[in-house]
Amino acid sequence: MRQMTRYVLFSLALAAVPSAASAYSFTTIDVPGATATSADRINARGQIVGGYTDADGMNHGFLLDNGSFFTIDVPGAAHTGAFGIDAAGRIVGIYVDGAAVERGFLLDQGVFTTIEVPGAMGTGAFDINARGQIVGRYQDAGGVYHGFLLDQGTFTTIDPPGAGFAQAIGINAGGQIVGGYEPPGHHGFLFDKGTFTDVDFPGAGATDALGINAAGQIVGRYVDASSVMHGFVLAHGTFTTIDPPGSTFTEAIGINARGYIVGDYMDASGALHGFLATP
Description:
This protein is mainly beta. The protein contains no helices and 24 strands.
């Protein structure tokens, strides 16, 4: 089982092929003893959060700080995943309770707080900025996913016009939000000052925007014409593919103010690893 339900994946069959060369220096991130690891967000201090699967198939969140791993488990949860961290070290994520219900959480100074959109069948929190604004997704009574922004206790739905499915996945200090939606097709989006703009990797069959830093650089994933998934960074209007050497599947998920990128990749044996990409 991959880390939690995380971001709903494209409904495509993904092929496995070697990755291309990259202008980044890559460091693999593996939680000791884990069967799968994903690095999901990195803050300005270089702290990294993500998730891992243990030998028993259980999912846990983690914090990587100054070379040390710390497990993050919501008390009583069946599974936990950590997906966002701000400069102050506040962490957000998703946990699954004993009734198999997905709920969001905020971890602040050792205290867990549940995040639930009123009336939702399930809620997940994906990112938090320095202002304490949180973005994520919720599932309505009809089973449809919507993006949301939680700001000072108030939830606002974040859905591009006409979307039948949406997720708000990343937010920066300026309140710019990125995510993904469909139909028609599957597109990434940027939501800035009330305006939605599509984020589509050129020639891709599907794109998701997963993270954004204070400079407006966006990272995400795209599916190419051969149904292979790659990571990307969009900076100053230019897309660059992000694939660790030897990867057969890549997601670029988080980017900090220094342009350091974290995500996950699959190797030729099918094992999932986290990575840090340094420009």
